[in-house]
Amino acid sequence: MVRLARAEPHTVPEDAPFALVDLAGSRGVVITAVNASAAREGIAPGMALTDARAALPSLRVRPGDRSEDARVLFKLGQWAGRYGPSRGHDQEDGFWADVTGVAHLYGGEEGLMGDLIDRLDDLGIPACAALADTYGAAFALARFGIPDRPGWRIVAPGETRAALERQPVDALRLDDDCAVLLKRLGLRRIGDLYPIPRISLAHRFASNDVAQRVLSRLDQALGRAAEPLIPFFARAPFIARRTFPEPLISSQPLEGVIDELCDELASALKDKDMGTRALLLRYYRADGTAGVTGTRMRAYSNDGAHFTMLLSPKLEKIDAGFGIDLVSIEATQVGPLKGTQPGFAEEGAAAYDPGPLIDALSNRLGEKAVCVLAAHASHVPERSQTRIAAVRSAAGAAPASAARGKPPSHLSSHDAAPWSHGQGQGPRRPPFLLERPEPIDVVAEVPDGPPARFVWRRVERRVARAQGPQRIAPEWWRLIGVPGARPARIRDYYKIEDEGGAAYWVFRHGLFGGAQEENAQEAVPPRWFLHGLFC
Amino acid sequence: MEPAAHSPFSLLPPRGSRRSGFAGPAGTADLPSAVPARGGGDRDRLLQALRATIANLERPMLGASPAGPSTRTALQDDGWWLGCAAADALLPECGLSLAGVHEIKPAGSAGSASAGDWMAGLGFALRLAALRLNQLKGPGSKDAMMLWCWPQPFSSELGQLSLQGLAHMGIDPARVLLVETPRQSEALTALEEGLKSGRLALAAGVIKDVDLNGARRLSLAAAARRTPCLLATHPAASGAAATATRWRVAVAQSGQHPFDCKAPGKARFKVALERCRGRPQSMDAAPFVMEWCDETFRFGLATQLAHGAARPRRAAYGS
What are the residues facing A281 on neighbouring strands? Predict the structure, then answer.
């Protein structure tokens, strides 16, 4: 609601009841958020829209946008990096942060919570926050233990049990059926569960499964069971960072720093015999904003000079804003990289290793601009090859140093590559294929013979010699299960040479007479296309 | 089109006479003291001495041995050859130089080049590349890659390199690194970077126009790590001055198909070597026709028939 009000102020009325609904709810259309006016009328999130309309016919609604919500929440989570290094999603409308060892920077836990709520309030977000020993307890108190928002609450260490006593069982992160069952049994507050022996609690429920869930949630909230949390970002095991006493106004002095950080990271990787295929350069500005840029490598590497070479061109594009006070370089996609000793005979095999060049070019021109051709399993000429970004071409292959002198199998010319089967036999294929076949006007001596004259790009060319046809049938299996699809037409390819000597690869699309294809589609006469150029 | 105006054999004088026509560049004339006295049998020695002098003069220009990888320089692969004796005879001692830019110009008409002209030029360039890739020696050289810089205007005009086409030409497609850039300046940068890295068998690029500065940079980069550069440029563009060789390539009717006189045969190129560093300037630049054999993957001299190529006789069967 707040997000919508900020993005489109006129859509959310101040004084009329208004609600956002979820159209994809399992119980029909459900209200997900309400404004203050609707809340006063007793409309609450979770109500069915039909119920709400019955109570308040003047309610205006609009479908919510969950993906946008999630995106904004993610950004908010990123922003909250100031309160703790690891943050994560907390259901759909919150985030958690691990503030261990951070509070003293804000003058204690009160200072931290006050700062958090004030800043969120400045952003126009009335938030509730709770700080507790366990994630479960903090969840319960933030959602159920704070009477009015914005507000915050801190549970002193060791007082979790007492703090949770008064909270409803819904705060235990149980699913709806479970919570309803507990209430039916008269267990409305978390405190009601404390005195019941664990074994008899299990007996009260119909299934052992439900009892286990309740007990495990209770244990998690009270800190008796461990609970793994999934953060937004996996923490990189290899990271080098540098803080600056004064924010750097320009990105220029960063170069020296990046150089040092790269060396630091490389030596950390070398110590563990590891290499990385991707680097992330994060920079944090003095005003709390952050940015990230990165680079990717073709093979695992732990060469500091190489890292520097790849990252330094990125520095120009960094906008320092109000000044950068922290820079970090993370190695993501880490893999083992064993140092190898080149054999006596194959000394210098690495002289032709294109890895560093590919990295440098991809870094400068973009990944997609630097590519290699790869065969694709299709006999239709334009589908028989694909372009793979060269940086990714070795993905999944052994690290470069291990493969030195023995490149990844698909790059090796010794293996039988799909293209090699037809080598030296069959009709020649043109070295250049047009991006899409271009229609040409053709005059042929006989209807199903090669062209005698044709017009391509407004120039008439007389055909001196022709070879063909080579018939290439469409891939009929691609039509299976596609309703209403018209079968593609057969192509007859010719290699033709004009009087000057230039050679072209042309094809006739379709057949005369329609003997092969029974429906009326054959009423369309075949058309000619130019598909490739020989040289 | 009429068959090649000059018989290829007439413009290639026998070795002896070619040597007698050799005229050293200015500067060699005042080195007679270094030259042994003239005599009937000393002619060869005289020439050898002159060649050595010229090679010494040119060495700084070729940038012989900066700090490259020791293994590459130790290999002593000095150049590469077209595999056609007549054409190779035009080249300097070491063949096509590794440390230089080789410019290939399609022979256009009226300042523009048709797709056919471009195709002839590019086909010639690709074949030179195929020869280089296959002649490369040394550890790791079987997988050494070549760079193909292909600015966007060309790819939309002439299409993309095709895997099967490359394979039919004798180039392992996995050894071709394609670089597609939106602008020419970026293609030049990519070429330069590729040459400087010293990790390529060859860098080839298609650039419409390259100024003196750009050509010079490419030359220096090629010399720095002894990686040859092939540059296909527009026929109307002035020849880049810093190049080691300049070829002008025109489209020619293909050869005889072995089994079918109506079918196109082996690809032929009408090639003229307009400029060649290390050879006399007065060299005859008359074109000759070369034929590419797509089974042995090498050039040969096209054999000409007395009255042009045999062609299908259309009227023979009546109508």
Answer: A293, A329
Distance from CA of A449 to the nearest CA of B (A): 13
Please compute Rg for chain B using Cα positions. 21
Distance CA B103, CA B231 (A): 5
Q: Kindly indicate whether the domain formed by B98-251 is annotated with CATH number 3.40.50.300.
A: yes
The angle, 0 to 180 degrees and rounded to 10, between the axes of the packed helices B184-197 and A355-365 is 160
Examine the predicted complex and report whether its ipTM is higher than 0.95: no
Per-residue pLDDT tens over the stretch B255-307: 888 888 889 989 999 999 888 887 765 556 778 889 998 888 889 888 766 55
- At A2-49, the pLDDT tens digits run 676 666 667 777 778 888 888 776 677 888 888 888 888 888 887 888
CA distance B192 to chain A (A): 11
Among B144, B181, B267, the residue with its CB nearest the CB of A369 is: B181
Cβ contacts of A433 on chain B, cutoff 8 Å: 159-162, 165
Q: Do A238-336 and A2-64 fall under one CATH topology?
A: no
**Residue spans per domain, chain A:** 2-64, 68-235, 238-336, 432-533
pLDDT in tens, A31-41: 888 888 888 88
C-alpha span between A506 and A443 (Å, rounded): 13
Pick the residue of B154, B163, B289 with the most A CBs within 10 A to test the interface with A by mutation. Answer: B163
In this structure, which topology does domain A238-336 adopt according to CATH?
Dna Ligase; domain 1 (3.30.1490)
* pLDDT bucket at B221, cuts 50 / 70 / 90: very high
Q: Which residues of A touch B123 (CB under 8 A)?
A: 431, 534-535
Across the interface, whether the CB atoms of A502 and B119 are under 8 A apart is answered yes
